Amino acid sequence: MPAVEPPVAPSKEPMPREKPAVKDHPRPSLSKEPLPVPPQASAPGKLPDQPPLSSPPQAAPGKLPDQPPLSSPPKASIPAPAQQAQGKPPVVEDKPPPPSPPKDSFPPVKLNIQDKFVILSNGILAVTISKPAGYVTGIQYNGIENILDTVNPEDDRGYWDVVWAPPGTKGTKGNFQRIVAKDFRVIIERADQIELSFKLAYNPAVDTKKAAPMEIDQRYVMLQGVSGVYAYGIFERAAWAQFGMPNARLAFKLQRQQFKYMVVADNRQREMPVPEDRMKPRGQVLEYPEAVLLVDPIDPKLKGEVDDKYQYSMESQDIRVHGWICKDPPTGFWQITPSFEFRSGGPNKQFLTSHVGPSTLAMFVSAHYSGEELIPKFKEGEPWNHIYGPIFMYMNNQTKGADFKLLWEDAKQKMLAEVKSWPYSFPASEDFPKANERVNVTGRFFVYDKYVTNEKVPAKGSFIGLGPLGEAGSWQRDCKTYQFWTRTDDEGYFTINFVRVGNYDVHGWVDGYIGDFKHKSPVNIAVGRNVDLGELVFEPLRDGPTLWEIGIPDRLAKEFYIPDPNPKYVNKLYVNHPDRFRQYGLWERYAELYPNNDLVYDVNTSDYKKDWFYAQVTRQIGARYNGTTWQVKFNLEDVVPNGIYKLRIALASATNSDLEVRFNEPKPSPAIFTSGRIGNDNSIARHGIHGLYWLFNIDVKGNTLRKGNNTMFLTQTKGVSPFQGLMYDYIRLEGPATSPK
């Protein structure tokens, strides 16, 4: 099987483009106390020599009936920790793994079927699943009788659930349904593999108002000699009732008194609170239930911090491995996702990962950071079939007294091995195509902006992918199909590996340029025929020369001014951290910076890194919230009165907003553009630096502009809550069309 290359963190430097000179300009200051400084972490590469992961002690089966003692898992070689690039997937040194022992050197996989439970074991771990419901009620490993939280009832430890919305449901709300299977089957039972099915069927005559109109088949797979268990779900519907599905996931909840150290990235790991810390009187709920101030936590070192699960969200492309560590005995529980082809919303859709519980989530469909537009909605009689996963729940351990963080280093190596094994060869479902049933797609991607370069240039480090048939950019609102993405190398070459059979549009975008690329013709993928797309050229939207611009077109608001948090509401992890936008309450800092008047930006003297607030939020006056109006001042040496200028506004996020644009005459003069109500991604409240991408291309008549000084007014008119507003990605004013130099 061809190898899948691990994800590479390409350069984030924007492509060459016109850029005005920016003078150094001091930003407004916030009166505040000094922020707490997080403890210094060990420098990468300076950990003392560590022994490799050791074998766990022989574990008696405890309360898992009729099970042989668990034997030693294979030892793992631990590399030195590596530095993680900002905002990128975990950095790992891709070394060839040591030779694996032959399979027959490990005990066979065994299945113990009881009245209400089934137990999978392979001599390394034992997994107990309720029958026929399909709840994972216990995982025995490394001397721990049950890794899952025994404080919770058996149906609240490891489970699948969905939120489904009957016709007429507004927004992202719906009915919560934990999947309780009714039918249990053994799909494969061999010495090297066992696969089990726990299926919930749908009967339209009985279940119309009780359950989502679809069938869900939960699959669990255990392999010989493998320290973990795989899971995938087959979601299928026939010609049944109309409905929407705002959420679909697989959740695991671990022992709260043992698993207290959480890792989602090299530079995002820490000791976490326990659930009791979030409850009264130890915790104080802030503006919304997910955000809690730790007033009197059990661990006093956490006092005064804010805990919020949204502070640990990640983009889909970066969710490869995350999980929890127990320090005694040193044990790791990791969720590994080798591919994101089955998730909704494309590579930069954001999802929850792990959070206080201790919980670890495999999110497949979610309206977070997108709103209703990322809810799959099925019409009456619309059939559908989709496989979510497989994902891998990996467990590792090491010698007591060694650096527990080396468990994370081993988990990253295991993640690389799983990525290289994708697509897996073992799933029994015919709906999951194997490597020989998929196709590789190659090509070379260029970008050509006639006002920037005289010829096309390689689109270095750019996104290119196969997604749904539709308009340019439609991929980011797709939530029913599979998508396949990669990033180009320094010369613009790309390979998209292991694409499923079907018809696709070729989508892409290039950091440093606005807009979306879509190839002129769809691509048909058929078995046995690799596809070479040849040269693809993206010509970004452009009418005339740049007169001025604000920001960097990269679909993020990260380059703009992000304030320090209020010292009362700090997560110490994000102090002096590249992801400073993940702090709670940053929206409140706008009114402190601009207590009386809104932001005014001069394109000649201001610096967007210091003077452009990362979000245009509302302002509270008394008990009400009001929209805000920002001003952009600029000078034109000359104006073509009968010419058409072009204003391009790219938004990184919008939440219940209405943007109005005026030139030189503030309200109540008529706006030259109004967006209407847009967006519901809620990225301001959820500590995101982007949600869904919006691009507006606005004609500006020359007679609305003046020779000399001009002012553009950007008004966000809506005002209901502190979380409404816009995040800008990039703004550019172009002159009338001319022949480029």
UniProtKB/TrEMBL annotation:
GO terms for cellular component: extracellular region. It holds the Pfam family CBM-like. CDD domains: RGL4_C, RGL4_M, RGL4_N. Its main location: secreted. One of its GO terms (molecular function) is carbohydrate binding. One of its GO terms (biological process) is carbohydrate metabolic process. InterPro entries: Carb-bd-like_fold, Gal_mutarotase_sf_dom, Galactose-bd-like_sf, GH-type_carb-bd, Polysacch_Lyase_4, RG-lyase_II, RG-lyase_III, Rhamnogal_lyase. It is found in: Secreted. Keywords: Lyase, Secreted, Signal. Residues 73-90 have a biased composition (Low complexity). Residues 49-59 have a biased composition (Pro residues). Its EC number is 4.2.2.23. It catalyses: Endotype eliminative cleavage of L-alpha-rhamnopyranosyl-(1->4)-alpha-D-galactopyranosyluronic acid bonds of rhamnogalacturonan I domains in ramified hairy regions of pectin leaving L-rhamnopyranose at the reducing end and 4-deoxy-4,5-unsaturated D-galactopyranosyluronic acid at the non-reducing end. Residues 1-108 are annotated as: Disordered. Residues 461-531, 546-733 form the Rhamnogalacturonan lyase domain. Residues 14-27 have a biased composition (Basic and acidic residues). It comes from the Eukaryota. PANTHER family: RHAMNOGALACTURONAN ENDOLYASE, RHAMNOGALACTURONATE LYASE FAMILY PROTEIN. Belongs to the polysaccharide lyase 4 family. This is rhamnogalacturonan endolyase. The lineage of its organism: Eukaryota, Viridiplantae, Streptophyta, Embryophyta, Tracheophyta.
